[in-house]
Design brief:
single chain, alpha/beta, D-Maltodextrin-Binding Protein, domain 2, 5-stranded mixed β-sheet, binds (2S)-2-hydroxy-2-methyl-3-oxobutanoic acid
Length: 344
């Protein structure tokens, strides 16, 4: 009897020791992790996700398998809910646009301040410097683990009606804008008639003519052949550029060993760098072949002179001032200084 009791308590001890040590030895890994993306692999954004997933699988020797969910399909296409879904664990990881997460993380509106970033060097000065670090601290506090930067790109405006050279040309034009309110403010300030909708809803709205125009990086124009849905006019104005951010849900991150965390982070950094090169291809060369390709599709391409551009800067300035307070004046000042002293 005594021996039996002794044996039972020994067994209980063994069980509790193994329960205690088990997570450290082999954390609970899921068979598959779910990565959310708005755009799929034909686009640079989709490539960012694909490259990250492939590098992670290879470098963790298959311990971490990631499936891509483009079209934000885990949240039925409602891209402005992506950040909340990430925090809640509906999504395990994402390569997401600062625009779509701005409703939850107000500092991310920084990248949507009109005409803050005049060129690619300006984007880099923000994402690769102190501003980028502050944004990552903010994201960490907001409940996700930020790992690396990628790029959606400069957003250019296209439409089915006429060439846009001045704000007057936009007057009354129905423009699809993303679900982040600063975009409605900007297009209203320019005299257009902005309509907020998800990217999923934007495509049929363009085809049916329910909206006259849209704004997005040019690779999307080419991939979707937007000239076939009536988008005959393109203006290159570079008013905003949206970076992408590679993130992981906090609980998922904590479930991985430190060695795997390091592999996932380095893979995100490497995939981000590679994707930024892809996103800029055809746009940074002196002859900008992407514009030529689009013109060859029968689209009228307008490039603004410095004075023409200035007219857009001027009408959107009140929007900049209003949103500067939402983003935080100190962060905006730091960003303006970083842009002013950028290496060109
Ligand atoms: O909805 C858009 O315009 C897109 C695809 O660029 C974003 O997700 C921000």
């Amino acid at each position: 009897m005594k021996l039996r009791r002794h044996l039972i308590s020994l067994l209980a001890l063994a069980a509790s020791v193994s329960a205690f040590t088990a997570p450290a030895v082999a954390a609970e890994y899921k068979a598959e992790y779910r990565m959310s993306l708005v755009l799929g692999p034909p686009t640079p954004w989709g490539q960012a996700g694909k490259l990250w997933a492939e590098m992670v699988k290879e470098r963790t020797q298959g311990r971490i398998n990631i499936k891509l969910y483009p079209g934000v399909s885990l949240i039925q296409g409602d891209q402005t809910r992506e950040f909340s879904a990430l925090r809640q664990g509906v999504i395990d990881m994402a390569v997401g646009s600062t625009i779509n997460w701005s409703p939850q993380v107000k500092e991310l509106n920084l990248f949507s301040l009109p005409f803050l970033m005049p060129d690619y060097a300006a984007i880099d000065a923000l994402t690769q410097g102190g501003v980028g670090k502050k944004i990552f601290t903010t994201l960490d506090k907001a409940g996700v683990v930020p790992l690396a930067w990628g790029e959606n790109g400069f957003r250019e405006v296209t439409n089915s009606k006429r060439s846009i050279k001045s704000p007057a040309d936009l007057k009354g034009m129905k423009i699809r804008v993303v679900g982040s309110p600063i975009y409605s403010d900007m297009f209203s300030a320019m005299g257009a008639n902005p309509t907020q909708m998800s990217w999923a809803d934007a495509q049929p709205a363009l085809s049916s003519g329910a909206v006259d125009g849209q704004e997005n990086p040019l690779f999307l124009f080419t991939v979707l052949k937007m000239q076939n849905v009536g988008q005959k006019f393109l203006t290159s104005w570079g008013y905003v550029a949206d970076p992408l951010i590679f993130v992981v849900n906090k609980d998922i991150w904590a479930s991985w060993t430190p060695a795997d965390q390091a592999l996932v982070k380095q893979a995100a950094i490497d995939a981000g760098k590679a994707e930024i090169v892809i996103a800029r291809k055809g746009l940074i060369e002196a002859d900008k072949p992407v514009f030529k390709d689009i013109a060859a599709m029968g689209v009228t391409v307008t490039t603004l002179s410095a004075e023409e551009r200035e007219a857009f800067v001027k009408v959107t300035r009140p929007v900049y001032e209003k949103w500067k307070n939402t983003v935080g004046p100190a962060l905006v000042k730091e960003a303006e200084d970083a842009v002013a002293s950028r290496k060109k």
